[in-house]
Design brief:
425 residues; alpha+beta; 42% helix; 4-stranded antiparallel sheet
């Protein structure tokens, strides 16, 4: 899932195909060819997807503001349970010669997952270091504003494609929605953003992608980034080991699997660890097939939202907000919905439409085409960001889902926006 490679939160496969958008495509590919169920939306270098997110440290809860005399009173964020199954950022790799590192990997993977050492060695001997993957991962993140990010994933063609996909799979999706509580249109939107409704699941051999990043992760030479880069290599080394475990458990031939340049796979772009932990057998055939079974794909995406993101059945996702005049924008460090409506009102943020009194939220400030946009994100918005830690990604998924369901036309949304602040009313 991860589901997406997310240098600025851009998912991997939702790139416009029109010839006139080739320059945009080139830039987007550089930023995203590996989106998936997972996280980290800042200007970092990571491939975050249903599992990539595991590589990033869990976002820390926003801190209350310091009580400066002209500041609002300090807030008291509500506690929020950590996303289930989110592993800690791995310990950084220890520098050692390649042959020694490979030998240690073979030994450790065999001990941990019970895979035959000869099998691991044979597969690694055929794996290739791919410079194209290193170049893609080395490109600096381009933090696109919402006004530029949004059109990449929300277009009339993508809306029409999503509505057709929903109609084609309505029965399967209805079963999944009834079981997990995740709306069909949200699942369809994820598949549309991640892989253009299954048409572009990635062409890199997964074994090559993970081998390259596990042993040759690019280094910037910046001492300030060295620890993170070492940890990222450790993450991908762990995902490579998980790939061997996945092959053993499922019978998949891991040497034939293809995916994103970060090793994300299938219609929902799951990293190996997420495949192992969150993929489910949706059609009852005894297998978890995220490459060919839409029943399995839909159920696995929904299960990821519930288990990893804490999706709340029937809960709100996001609503527009109005910011009081003269109040500064409030930008919490994380995306956790820890602020009560009273806390938000003290910061000048009020919902533009009625919200249940007990709902906690996080303020979202977006640079839209028509100027500043203010939103409130609830627990289910946070759940979407567990697929890809980016408020832009989550908002694109949500708005596309609303259009697919026929409730909202995001292409006309800027014409009907409420005023950003009461000064504009």
């Amino acid at each position: 899932m991860t589901a997406r490679l997310l240098k600025s939160g851009l998912p991997r496969a939702g790139i416009p195909k029109a010839g006139q958008a080739r320059s945009l495509l080139a830039g987007a590919l550089a930023l995203s060819l590996a989106a998936c169920a997972t996280q980290a939306a800042s200007a970092t270098d990571a491939a975050d997807t249903p599992a990539t997110a595991a590589a990033s440290a869990p976002a820390s809860p926003p801190s209350p503001v310091d009580g400066a005399p002209d500041s609002p009173a300090p807030l008291s964020p509500a506690p929020i349970a950590p996303a289930p199954g989110t592993p800690a950022l791995p310990e950084p790799v220890k520098p050692m010669p390649l042959a020694q590192a490979r030998a240690a990997f073979i030994r450790d993977t065999a001990d941990r997952y019970g895979v035959d050492t000869a099998t691991i060695a044979s597969v690694l001997a055929r794996a290739e270091k791919r410079d194209s993957i290193i170049r893609a991962m080395s490109r600096p993140a381009e933090a696109k504003p919402w006004s530029e990010y949004r059109p990449i994933f929300i277009s009339q063609a993508r809306i029409d494609g999503g509505q057709a996909f929903l109609a084609e799979h309505r029965a399967e999706l209805a079963k999944v929605e009834a079981r997990y509580g995740v709306p069909a249109e949200i699942i369809v939107s994820i598949v549309g953003v991640e892989t253009s409704y299954g048409r572009n699941t990635g062409s890199y051999p997964v074994i090559d992608a993970l081998y390259t990043l596990a042993f040759f992760y690019p280094r910037s030479g910046d001492p300030a980034k060295a620890d993170r880069e070492n940890r990222r290599e450790a993450f991908f080394r762990g995902e490579l080991a998980q790939l061997f475990a996945l092959g053993k458990e499922t019978g998949l031939d891991i040497t034939t699997l293809t995916g994103s340049y970060a090793g994300a796979m299938g219609w929902g772009q799951f990293m190996p660890s997420s495949y192992r932990e969150y993929a489910v057998d949706g059609d009852g055939d005894g297998r978890r097939d995220l490459f060919n079974s839409t029943d399995d794909v839909f159920a696995s995406i929904a299960n990821y939202f519930v288990q990893k993101g804490g999706w709340v059945r029937g809960g709100p996702v996001t609503v527009r907000a109005v910011r009081d005049p003269g109040m500064p924008d409030f930008e919490p460090e994380g995306l956790e919905p820890v602020y009560s409506q009273a806390d938000l009102a003290a910061r000048g943020y009020r919902p533009a439409t009625p919200v249940a009194a007990g709902e906690h939220a996080v303020p979202l400030n977006l640079d839209g085409v028509g100027g500043k946009e203010y939103w409130l994100g609830f627990r289910n918005f946070y759940a979407i960001t567990r697929y890809n830690i980016s408020k832009h990604y989550a908002m694109a998924v949500y708005q596309l889902s609303e259009a697919i369901a026929g409730r909202e036309n995001p292409l006309a949304a800027t014409e009907r926006q409420p005023p950003a602040s009461r000064d504009d009313a």
